[in-house]
Structures are given as C-alpha cells and as structure tokens.
Amino acid sequence: MAEPVFLYDGDCAFCTRCVEFYRRHAATEVPILPWQAADLDALGLTAAECDTAVQWARPGAEPKAGPDAIARLLRASTGHLGAWKLAGLVLSFPPVRWLAWPGYRWVARNRHRMPGGTAACSLPRG
C-alpha cells in the first residue's frame, strides 16, 4: 500500500507556520506537503476538501480530515519520548475527538486572524 501524506494549505501563512513548528519540534517519515503541490486525483481528494481542512491521505484509502488528520500525523511522529504520539492518541480518543472538531472549524474559519495569518488565509465564503 502506498505511503500516507499530510496535506495543508500552502497559500495560508498560518497553516504554513503550524507545519514549520511541527517540523522543528517533531520528526516523522510522512511527507508533509501543500495540497497545491499534490496529485489530488490520485489521493481521492478535491481542492475544495483540501481548502477546507488539512488532510491525511493515501491512494486507495479513505482520507482523514481536520483533527483526525492531525491525530494521524502526531501518531506517526518519532522521537521526543513518544510525546507527540501520545498527543495523537489523546486526540483520537472519541470524547476529545468530538470536542476537537468544533475547535478546528473555528480556527479554520478564523485562521486569517491567527498569529501569522494574513487576508490570503481566509477561507472562501460558501
């Protein structure tokens, strides 16, 4: 089976800063790419899906979005005595996962207001 990939919005300064933070503080073998540089058709994704939420995808498998994708990325982390993996496991736990979705949606809608965000980070109205 093909390896997974984590996709984020490369046009969003806030998203890019979050990815840079993760890369500085965690290690993973999973490629982390802007969705604009990925073969979305091969991953079974659309630009609209990727513009709405980060994605964890692999060809032939159902993609995971938002906090579910983040949990997968964290669980794929190496090093730091497993702290990132533990965070991913906690985020995967149903009560935490259920609460994470409204928080994720709020951040996604307001990412242009977050530290490092710009007007270009705004999600399309729709």
Automatic annotation (TrEMBL):
Pfam families tied to this protein: DCC1-like (PF04134)
Protein name: Putative thiol-disulfide oxidoreductase DCC
GO MF: protein-disulfide reductase activity
